[in-house]
């Protein structure tokens, strides 16, 4: 999904196997999204941003787009009229709606996969673990912008700037649509591939013929410890011989140094 990497025969990529075709939304959500003529921002970070909640509400109040925010409360103090809260939302089905313009996410792998599948630009707010790497890859591929939760530049002004850039610069949507097209263009659906290869391994009693030689190697060979030790030994021996050779040449070049040295009484 992010970069091309070499895979051994016993490793099969099934990224996106959990993504299902969109289902019909509940009527209230369907009407909310259908009537969002200016578009919708889907925001799913839960209580991770509790300390910066008021700042986010101020940012959303300055936008003309509607905001769907997954939150544990039914209403918030200072909640602007364009923000709709919900304790749970069918995320994949919402991302599939054409009026969703931006997805604000922490950058987890599954959420990132879903937004690529449905072709929605990302504002990533990574907090920990792999989220930072996922966000960086999304930014590199041109369909996201990122502002880490603990970044000292995390401010109302910067958040508003990033959101407007994603909303009104079509480059990000074009890039994620292209990524979505590549994601869908595969000979087999990920879940079908997973089922096939599980059955293949069962049919062939573990499919030992697909295992690479590294599986049975001793740890010191697998990690090339023997090769590294040999090269280190050759290098150290070469340096030692070179030092001894230089010392011998210097002594041979000045044989009278010791003879001419004045004697002490």
Q: Tell me roughly what share of residues is in helical segments.
A: 40-55%
Mean pLDDT, all residues: 88
> What is the string of helix and strand elements?
HEHEEHEHEHEHHHHH
By DSSP (H or I, 4+ residues per run), the number of helices equals 10
Number of domains: 2
Oligomer: single chain
Share in β-strands: 5-15%
What's the architecture of the largest domain in CATH terms?
A: 3-Layer(aba) Sandwich
User: Shape, please?
Assistant: flat
Q: Under the CATH scheme, which class of the largest domain?
A: Alpha Beta
Question: Unreliable runs, pLDDT <50, ≥5 residues?
Answer: none
Named CATH topology of the largest domain: Rossmann fold
The helix-and-strand class reads: alpha/beta
Task: Write a compact overview of the structure shown.
The protein is of the alpha/beta class and 265 residues long.
Could you walk me through the main structural features you see in this protein, from its secondary elements to its overall organization?
It is a single chain. With 265 residues, this protein is of the alpha/beta class. It has two domains: 27-192, Rossmann fold (3-Layer(aba) Sandwich); 217-253. 44% of the residues lie in helices and 10% in strands. It has ten helices and six strands, in the order αβαββαβαβαβααααα. The chain has a six-stranded parallel β-sheet with strand order 3-2-1-4-5-6, with helices on both faces. The longest helix has 29 residues, at 225-253. InterPro entries: UDP-glycosyltransferase, UDP_glucos_trans, UDP_glycos_trans_CS. Keywords: Glycosyltransferase, Membrane, Transferase, Transmembrane, Transmembrane helix. Its EC number is 2.4.1.17.
């Amino acid at each position: 999904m992010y970069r091309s990497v070499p895979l051994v025969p016993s490793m099969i990529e099934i990224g996106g196997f959990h993504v299902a075709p969109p289902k019909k939304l509940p009527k209230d959500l369907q009407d909310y999204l259908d009537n969002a003529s200016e578009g919708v921002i889907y925001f799913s970070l839960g209580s991770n941003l509790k300390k910066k909640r008021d700042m986010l509400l101020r940012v959303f109040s300055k936008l003309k787009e509607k905001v769907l925010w997954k939150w544990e409360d039914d209403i918030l103090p200072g909640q602007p009229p364009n923000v709709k809260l919900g304790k749970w939302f069918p995320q994949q089905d919402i991302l599939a709606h054409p009026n969703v313009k931006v997805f604000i996410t922490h950058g987890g792998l599954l959420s990132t996969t879903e937004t690529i599948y449905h072709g929605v630009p990302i504002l990533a707010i990574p907090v920990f673990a792999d989220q930072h790497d996922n966000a960086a890859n999304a930014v590199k591929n041109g369909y996201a912008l990122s502002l880490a939760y603990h970044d000292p530049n995390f401010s109302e002004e910067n958040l508003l700037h990033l959101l407007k850039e994603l909303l009104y610069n079509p480059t990000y949507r074009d890039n994620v649509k292209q990524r979505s097209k590549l994601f869908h263009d595969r000979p087999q659906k990920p879940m079908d591939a997973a089922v096939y290869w599980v059955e293949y391994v069962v049919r062939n009693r573990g499919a030992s013929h697909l295992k690479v030689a590294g599986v049975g190697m001793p740890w010191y060979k697998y990690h090339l410890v023997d090769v590294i030790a040999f090269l280190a030994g050759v290098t150290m021996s070469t340096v030692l011989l070179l030092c001894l050779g230089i010392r011998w040449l210097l002594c041979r070049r000045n044989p009278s140094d010791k003879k001419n040295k004045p004697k002490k009484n």
